[in-house]
């Protein structure tokens, strides 16, 4: 079953990866997410370089549900294959997140780390 507590993200060492890095922390045993599915998740996101948290569903006290196709490319590529009950870490380079520096989003140009708990697939 999915961990009932907010994950703590270990501060990474070395340079940010140029490609999407997918690390399963806990492998779920439920329904497997497929591209284009609607997913319900709990997540926390931090900046790779600073470790500063920029978003967390845990802080709002509720999970969030959305279609994968509406999300950043790193989530669209990194969540399929994950099973309900699992916890996965995604390290997402800027080109799969909010684009290069100056692209207009406060996280543009940044490598991001998300830890995602998959609660349901719809």
Quick take:
The protein is mainly beta and 122 residues long. It has two helices and six strands, in the order βββαβαββ. GO terms for molecular function: peptidyl-prolyl cis-trans isomerase activity.
Notes on the protein architecture:
The chain is mainly beta and 122 residues long. It has one domain: Chitinase A, domain 3, CATH 3.10.50. Helices cover 8% and strands 33% of the residues. It is built from two helices and six strands. Strands 1, 2, 3, 4, 5 and 6 form a six-stranded antiparallel sheet that branches. The longest helix is centred in the middle third of the chain and has 6 residues. The chain starts with 20 loop residues before the first strand and ends with a strand. It is an enzyme of class 5 (isomerase). InterPro entries: PPIase_dom_sf, PPIase_FKBP_dom. Belongs to the FKBP-type PPIase family.
Features:
single chain, globular, 122 residues, 33% strand, 6-stranded antiparallel β-sheet, mainly beta, Chitinase A, domain 3
Could you give the topology of this structure?
Layout lengths: L20 E6 L11 E10 L5 E4 H4 L3 E4 L5 H6 L8 E6 L19 E10 L1
Antiparallel strand pairs: 1-5, 2-3, 2-4, 2-6, 5-6
Family: Belongs to the FKBP-type PPIase family.
InterPro entries: PPIase_dom_sf, PPIase_FKBP_dom
GO molecular function: peptidyl-prolyl cis-trans isomerase activity
């Amino acid at each position: 079953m999915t961990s009932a507590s907010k994950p703590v993200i270990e501060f990474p060492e070395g340079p940010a990866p140029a490609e999407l890095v997918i690390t399963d922390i806990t492998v779920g045993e439920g329904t497997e997410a497929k591209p284009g599915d609607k997913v319900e998740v709990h997540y926390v996101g931090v900046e790779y370089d600073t470790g500063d948290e920029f978003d967390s569903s845990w802080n709002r006290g509720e999970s969030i549900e959305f279609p994968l196709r509406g999300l950043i490319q790193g989530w669209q590529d990194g969540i399929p294959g994950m099973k309900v009950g699992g916890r996965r870490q995604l390290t997402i380079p800027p080109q799969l997140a909010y684009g290069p520096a100056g692209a207009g989003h406060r996280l543009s140009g940044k490598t991001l780390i998300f830890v995602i708990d998959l609660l349901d697939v719809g």
